[in-house]
Amino acid sequence: MKTPIPSLPSSPCKSGHPFLPNSQKKTLFITNFIDVRNFIHVYSEAPPMPGLPLPPTTRKTLFLDLDDTLIRQVELPDQYDFATKTHYIIKRPGVEKLLQVATDNDFEIVIFTAGGRDYASPIIDWLDPNVLITHRLYRDSCKRNIRGIPIKDLTLTGRSLDRCIIIDDLWQRVPQRENVVMIKPFKGGTQDSELTRLLRFFEIESRYEDLRDAVSHVNESFESLMEMEIMMKTLIEEINCC
After folding, report:
1. 84 domain-assigned
2. 173 assigned to some structural domain
3. How much is the pLDDT for 32?
4. What is the pLDDT of residue 99?
5. Which residues form the FCP1 homology domain (predicted)?
6. Taking each helix axis from N to C terminus, what angle separates 211-241 and 194-204, rounded to the nearest 10 degrees?
7. What is the pLDDT of residues 124-141, one digit of tens each?
8. How far apart are CA 214 and CA 206, in angstroms?
9. Total tally of structural domains belonging to the chain
10. Catalytic residue among 35, 67, 78, 81, which?
11. Residue 83 lies in a domain
């Protein structure tokens, strides 16, 4: 029998906390926030991974990082009592839409996280109530570089590199850079629109035989946007200095 995740807590935090929506956004709070303590002694019903390589598929593959790509774990200083710390998991806006659009475009969805199974699997269950995620890869599926940092090597997954992409805020940890769709780290803001921006990929990917060409197209737009943001920030700083 499936063990249900406990119901979400009501907000214990003072109004005005930068990570929390205001009182007019109660629905967003209930949907996008959960106390990490709710995952204690909750075990995922996901079947054990068969290990790498993944089972064969005829579908294209979307690999998704977890921390700071789909979620953000935050400590709420309002609740710090010098004995325990309260942490919350915040769901990035647009997660449900991304999963649905990828599925509708015939992508299998694989979570590829450097987190351990005990930590990550219950969170993935919470993120994916419609069970659109096909497979889950955890820390033990990562390689280690000479400094012991987890590396996500897509060549070990059994997927053709021209038919897979990965969305990861730490693109440096994926050796196959041409497969990485670049994204800003999620900081917990309710106005974050990065996942919505990346839906553009699914509008154009069918035009390309090699998905890496579609990735390049999307990343060029991202880099242009980043350059514009840097220019605007520099301009504002110069104005403020005058």
Report:
1. no
2. yes
3. 73
4. 98
5. 55-205
6. 150
7. 999 999 999 999 999 999
8. 9
9. 1
10. 67
11. no
Range of the domain at 228: 43-71+91-241
Is 189 among the domain residues?
yes
Specify whether 192 is catalytic: no
Convert the pLDDT of each residue in 164-197 to its tens digit: 999 999 999 999 999 999 999 999 999 999 999 9
Q: 53: cis peptide before it, omega within 30°?
A: yes
Q: Both tokens of residue 155? A: 């060549």
The question of whether 65 is a catalytic residue gets the answer yes
Q: What is the CATH number of the domain that holds 212?
A: 3.40.50.1000
Residue from 69, 88, 84 nearest 20 by CA: 88
Verdict on whether the full-model pTM lies above 0.85: no
pLDDT above 50: residue 223:
yes
